[in-house]
Design goal:
This protein is mainly α. The protein has 2 domains: 45 residues, no CATH class; 230 residues, MetI-like (MetI-like fold). It has 13 helices and no strands. The longest helix is centred in the C-terminal third of the chain and has 38 residues. The chain starts with a helix and ends with a helix.
Length: 317
C-alpha cells in the first residue's frame, strides 16, 4: 500500500506539471493584448510598450512559465495584472462559494440517484421502473442552462421558495441566508447530474442482481432485495465511488455555468470575467487550482478502492 501511495503521489504531481504547461500555453493562444486591455484602447503605443515591460510580457515564454510555476511551488500565485490584488486570496474567497455549491450539488445528486437507481433495478420491467427510467433520461438530456432557467421560473418567480440571484454580502457569517442562496443552484445541478448517476446505478445494480454470488444467496433462501443488499451492493459501491470521482469534473463545469446564471460570486464567475479581461496570471492560477482539486479527488478515489477492496491491495502487492 505504501508503494502504491508513493507511485500515486508521483503520478499526481506529474499530472499537475503537464496540466500547468498545457494551461500556460493554451492561454497564450488567446487573442488580445493584456497590456492594451489594462492601459485602455486610447493609450499610446509607448504606454502599452512600457506596461508590457513592467508586467514581464516581453520575456520569453519559458521564462514567464518558470517565474509563474516557481511562485506556485512556494504557494505564491502572484498578483492580478488587472487589479493588483493577490490571486491566492481571491481564489480562497471565491472557493467559499464554489466548493459548498459543488458539495451540495453532489449531495442532492446522490440522494436522488442512489435510491432511485436501486429501485428501478429491483423493479426492472415494471411500469414504475420504466417511468422513472424515462424521467431520468429526460432529466439527463436537459442542458444545465435550461434547467437553471426553469428552476428560477418555477421555484423563485412562481412559488417564491428560493432567491434567484446573488449571495449574502456577509457570506457565511449569515449561514442561513448563504445556504438558501445556494439551495436552488445546487438542486439544479444535482438533478441533472443525479439523473446521469441514477442510470449508472441502475445498470450496475442490474449486473449485481445477475451475478453468480447474488443468485447463489437467493438459492439459499434470501429474498432478492436481501441478497442484493448483503452481497451485491458492496461491489456496486466501488463502481459508484469511481463515478462520483469522475462526476466532480462535471459538477465543477456545471458550477461555472450556474454561477453566471444565479449571479453567485464564485470561482466560475470570476474565471469568466478574468478571461474577458485577459488577466492571464489569474486565469492560469485558477485553472491550475481546479485541475489540482480534480486530480486529488481522483487519487483519493483510487486510495479508497484499495482500502475497501482487499483484492486490489493483493493485486498491487
Amino acid at each position: 500500500m505504501s508503494r502504491f501511495l508513493v507511485v500515486r503521489t508521483l503520478t499526481l504531481l506529474l499530472g499537475l506539471g503537464v496540466a500547468s504547461v498545457i494551461i500556460f500555453l493554451s492561454l497564450r493562444l488567446l487573442p488580445g493584448d493584456v497590456a492594451q486591455v489594462i492601459a485602455g484602447l486610447q493609450a499610446s503605443p509607448e504606454r502599452v510598450a512600457a506596461l508590457r515591460e513592467q508586467l514581464g510580457l516581453n520575456a520569453p515564454l519559458p521564462q514567464q512559465y518558470l517565474s509563474w510555476i516557481g511562485g506556485v511551488l512556494t504557494f505564491d500565485l502572484g498578483n492580478s495584472v488587472v487589479t493588483g490584488s493577490p490571486v491566492a486570496g481571491q481564489i480562497l474567497e471565491k472557493m467559499q462559494v464554489t466548493l459548498p455549491l459543488v458539495a451540495l450539488s453532489m449531495l442532492v445528486g446522490a440522494t436522488i440517484a442512489l435510491p432511485l437507481g436501486v429501485f428501478t433495478a429491483v423493479r426492472h420491467g415494471r411500469r414504475d421502473s420504466r417511468a422513472l427510467s424515462a424521467l431520468g433520461i429526460l432529466a439527463a438530456a436537459v442542458p444545465i442552462v435550461w434547467a437553471g432557467l426553469l428552476a428560477i421560473i418555477v421555484f423563485s418567480n412562481w412559488l417564491g421558495w428560493f432567491p434567484s440571484q446573488g449571495f449574502p454580502r456577509e457570506g457565511w457569517a449569515a449561514p442561513g441566508r448563504a445556504l438558501l442562496s445556494l439551495a436552488l443552484p445546487a438542486i439544479t445541478i444535482g438533478i441533472v447530474e443525479g439523473a446521469v448517476l441514477m442510470r449508472f446505478v441502475r445498470s450496475a445494480t442490474l449486473s449485481a442482481l445477475n451475478a453468480e454470488h447474488v443468485r447463489s444467496a437467493m438459492s439459499r433462501g434470501h429474498t432478492r432485495l436481501r441478497a442484493l443488499i448483503l452481497h451485491g451492493l458492496p461491489g456496486v459501491g466501488l463502481s459508484i465511488v469511481s463515478l462520483l470521482g469522475i462526476q466532480i469534473a462535471g459538477l465543477i463545469v456545471g458550477a461555472v455555468v450556474i454561477e453566471q446564471l444565479f449571479n453567485l460570486p464564485g470561482l466560475g464567475r470570476m474565471l469568466v470575467a478574468d478571461v474577458g479581461q485577459r488577466d492571464l496570471l489569474k486565469v492560469q492560477s485558477v485553472l491550475l487550482v481546479l485541475t489540482g482539486i480534480i486530480l486529488v479527488i481522483g487519487a483519493a478515489v483510487d486510495v479508497l478502492h484499495r482500502l475497501i477492496d482487499p483484492r486490489m491491495r493483493t493485486a498491487t502487492a
